[in-house]
């Protein structure tokens, strides 16, 4: 019996008669748990899950007719909207008998629903207000600094002290960042001191994080799981960031290349593993349990901590796919197991995971048009298939909804490495996506 089969059996046994309900950004993210007998519901903001007819599915976009950009849209900000009320009622209905709720990311919206179903629902995630603390980047960075891990040299500058930035700018370009960000939203790159005032992100905290822009750094990501008695680390990848054909933001998230990671030196892989385990232990000491992610930059041969993602990530789905193919337990399954108090299994060395995994790229294409539009995401997939005949796609937008600027058009799975730096794609693939983006802008507005 494989490692995955054993853990799946134990998770199923501990769930017992409880029906598992997923609530996340994308319905298709639950696919790695499709073989869990208790999987009952998949509720999502975009991309309804339709791979198993036995799984009850509802996507928020089907209630509104709009596919939103989740980096700037949060259901917690729309609790009184008619669509949210309808979505909440459907979720309450799915949780009307013995069940377990699995969140992509804890939310106040979900915490309220859980307490309204407390007698029959087990919440397999942190209380939303607890998780919120781990999203405050300066607090986390200060703790990681105390662990002795190298990191980006952020300076925290009060709104009243912007003149301090003039001294920092003498060393080159800068990055300005809010304390809470997601998917590259909340970061601004400035090339000169003259740009600082106009790009300064005024927020309620009245301070901004400032750091030098590290030219030529390789962006890395890894997923892991915190157990009550250990930490397991999963497939690392090179992050795809700020690619013009795929995203509207300078540092916008575009996916993950799990193949290019094989080119890293073995000692870098070991540093990723060791650092992530130490961060996981710190998280556990502060009440965190379950899966999380860490971003790093590899700059001039030095691994620098960037941020913790205290939730599942955009890379989780593809990381799980690689683990399932290898017969290994994955981040979704391990998150469930950790919350069901299963003992931590023996960790698989990161180098061994990389050696046994096949090349895979998870590429997320966002709509880069000037405004929302009715798009047929399948036409994007057709364009890409002209240069990548074996590409697979999910989370595909439909012409029945209006896709907001910056929202996901489709998530593409490509069985090879597609980048050299994380900030570009190979030419043919990039041209295919650019060609589709340009053509979609020319479509009649009523489509």
Automatic annotation (TrEMBL):
The keyword Lyase does not apply. Keywords: ATP-binding, Nucleotide-binding. It comes from the Bacteria. SUPFAM superfamilies: Glutathione synthetase ATP-binding domain-like. Signal peptide: none annotated. One of its GO terms (molecular function) is ATP binding. The keyword Oxidoreductase does not apply. Pfam families: ATP-grasp_3. InterPro entries: ATP-grasp (IPR011761), ATP-grasp_PylC-type (IPR003806). Residues 141-337 form the ATP-grasp domain. This is ATP-grasp domain-containing protein. It comes from Mycolicibacterium vanbaalenii (strain DSM 7251 / JCM 13017 / BCRC 16820 / KCTC 9966 / NRRL B-24157 / PYR-1). The lineage of its organism: Bacteria, Bacillati, Actinomycetota, Actinomycetes, Mycobacteriales.
